[in-house]
Model the fold of this input.
Amino acid sequence: MLWAKVTFIVSFLLLLTLPFNPLLNQRFVVFPLSVVCLTLGLISMYYCTLPAKSKQSRSTGGRP
Amino acid sequence: MIFWTIAVLGVYLLIILTIGFRSGRGAGKSAESFFVANRNLNWMQEAMAVFTTIASAGALVGSTGLFYKDGAVMLGFIMAYTFLMPITYWFVGVRLRRLGRARGYQTQSAFIGDYYQSGFLRWCVSLFGVVFSIPYFLVGPVAMGILLNKFTGFPYWAGVLAFVIVAMVYTIKGGLRAVANTDVFHGALLVLFLLAVVFTLVAHAGGWVSILDSPKAMVPTSGIGLKQFFAWIPYLGLVTFCWPDRAFRMFAVKDDANLRKGCVISGAMMTAASVGFLAIGLAANKIVPGIKNTDTSLASALQVAAVWLVPWFVMNAWGSGMSTFTAGMLSTANIFIKDIFEPWYVRMYKIPLGEKRDKLIVGAARWFMIFLGATTLVACFYPPPFIWSLINLTLGLFLQFCPMFLYGLMWKGTTRIGVQASFVTGVTLHILWSFFYKPPFGTIAGINALFFSTIVFFVVSFLTSDKKEDLDEREAMRAIANGLNDQPGTTASLSNPILAK
Done:
């Protein structure tokens, strides 16, 4: 799922570049921002690791 | 408080013993049942097992101390468990699970030996798994004996003895299933405890605004703090699937869906616990500032702010210590018996597959665990002087397994010589930078060594090639690992020609 991959990467990069981002690296911002990004990262990872559906199962609503 | 601490701990140990005994019935029937719970663990057992083994007693004491000292530098620690650990554990785990089911693998080394057709790598992974796991789990009872003595005056020797006996009894009786079910119970208690600690300490420190009003609530922008922030991410993110006591559970999960859920849930629980550690560290800085021995920061803050939580702290530290101790003991016995004892004994006495061999293997594993327990007790009372050096080496050495598992499963161009060269480079550099020289990037020798061993891995693999029959065998294994040729239910241990006889 594209949205999950994009969310995962953006959340990760946002936290990874925090030391170089004076706008966000502030004492009242880092903790809440981290909680939001970590939560989004975990939710998106759940969808990123979902097995891809085959064409057949898509057309039959998941049935073989 | 002394009475309540001993009472809470006593009740906890009784419950743990009951769960371990009840869930471990019939575990001794076969090696598969004892070591990998008949490959039938669900997502909850997998997630809790990984969570409680990582969130060890050391994490409750040492990691909270690091968060107290370094504050938001440790955001790298948290990111490792959110972004890297679950996804790499899932990537490697799902492949090893499929191969384990198809070919009967129960240990990392059995897979590595076959995948690269290398006796050298098989023996290295086995010996490292045994030699470096033992000191790591030996120190658990020491720490728990000291902790109980400090808070209750209970004699050190009695605390150590109680810890080792309870942990050994249910592990020897029930194998992995008993360990997994006690982990579920302990994991639930640990989550509740952390929630109670976070909200109590934050409230006592004046609320969220008060604890965040500190320079430690920001990530450092230069110096050693910045290096540590970046080093934590690969260090903790990559070591979990390499570490034998965490990795052998991959072989025990019943299917891909349960493993996937287990990985994400364990990542979520470690993330929540680590965010809790950050809040605890920041709050403890307000409640008890200026502590020199930071390992005592959580206990000191609890004694000032919420003394009623001290018995629960001791109980949870014991529970976490037991999770790590039992996982380490079972994983070490698994490696020693399956990779070293079984091939040797079977070759000597030509014992065929079947009930007799299973009984022999489980019996040998139980005796080996009794030996480990006795060794633990000796080490608790007469700790060898080199034990701390071995523990310092452990994490970084296990990290050097990363190229052979992660890159080797990702990249088709991997060659045996590339893996061997990378492993030897990583181990040598890690030892050199741990004891003799300063690491070039300034922090955490294991990560520096992994950086260079990764370069060696790709360069040597590009320059060398494997024999066609080895490549064909690896391709066949890759097909199973990638889910293209899954063959569930195949008889165990067929891949090893000695064991298959």
